[in-house]
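Re: weekly structure request thread

Next one in the queue (408 aa):
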Amino acid sequence: MKPLRIKSSSQLANVHYEIRGPLARHAVELEKAGHEIIKLNIGNPGAFGFRAPETMRQAMIENLRESDAYCHQKGIFPAREAVVMQQQSRGVMDTTAEDVFMGNGVSELILFSLRALLDEGDEVLVPSPDYPLWTAATHLNDGKAIHYPCPPELNYLPDLDALRKLVTPHTRALVIISPNNPTGAVYPREVLQQMVNLAEEHGLVVFTDEIYDRITYQGAEYTPVATLVKHTLCGTFSGLSKVYRSCGFRVGWLSFSGEKDHAQEYMLGLDTLCSLRLCSNVVGQWAVQTALGGHQSIYELTEPGGRLFQTRATVLDGCQRSKYLTVLPPRGAIYAFPGVDLAKLPGFDDQKFAWDLLERKHVLVAPGSSFNVPYRNHFRITLLPDVKTMIDVFGRMEELLDEYATGA
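Done, posted below.
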């Protein structure tokens, strides 16, 4: 008897994560065929030679004997208290250890936070371009992602007039990503305040994704959104993956502040979801207190002369020298979002470019349309490679764009 075809759930119909999608899978096939692929599609510091601070490793080693058992579903107390102390140092005084949830990375907590909030048809305001997990998680949890524009013409800052018009009776939450992935935009305080005012006016939950909170360049000022929220619930997401170069530890956290009294049922629901997965990785949590309270080595990488700073400068120089590329200098995070001049390459398509770049030049990038934008002439690259590698990458990209220009 022929077995029935096993189909995926219909809930996955609108769930996309192209950063690790068909392009990335094809890159693996090319590697198996013997090709060396330069992978710029994902922000994975360890893959480019970055290492977590030694003090964090030591903290985990010293607490291994305390890590055999499950911990509380919200996480170990020292880790949660360290998050509280960090928030207090920033002026957020209304967060307690009971308001902090540790997760297996921020990704898990995004999924949980939306699962606990949304019913079918509920809407979440998500930036465009976005980190696509926010859109995917909204759809996966029966909601509808409504994208508010952050266009290149506004330096990738939110179009506040457009944002206001998107609020409906079904809107439940506003997502803010600053420093931003994929554009590197760092939202000014006055812009964030207007976004918070809108959320408070309509009783929306503010979800602020601040995983790149300490990664800024050339004086860009990061503003913790929680310092601005007083009259609605604010959930701040952060973790060890990027600032502390430890993606594989899988340690993230979600801390709540602002108006919490009316959100106790929601937070109890989130606690239930955390209980269902028993607890997050205990070993990695022991690194949190050391990470947040110790020397912040990330600044040595983002200041002039630091590796991230230098690679960022190389990207800016590569786009300036290119006959086809433009870029708004990223002010934070670990990505750039170059665009192609359509006057010089009419008909350019980001998906085709990404496939051709992979097949013909063995460089893997993420097409800009993967980040839920209406245009198709951008792509995202990470700033993690060293300068020499990035110079090589821009040479290969320019070769391909020249081939496009000549019809080759």
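The first helix runs from residue 22 to 32. The domain at 10-51+300-406 is CATH 3.90.1150.10 (Aspartate Aminotransferase, domain 1).
Next request, please.
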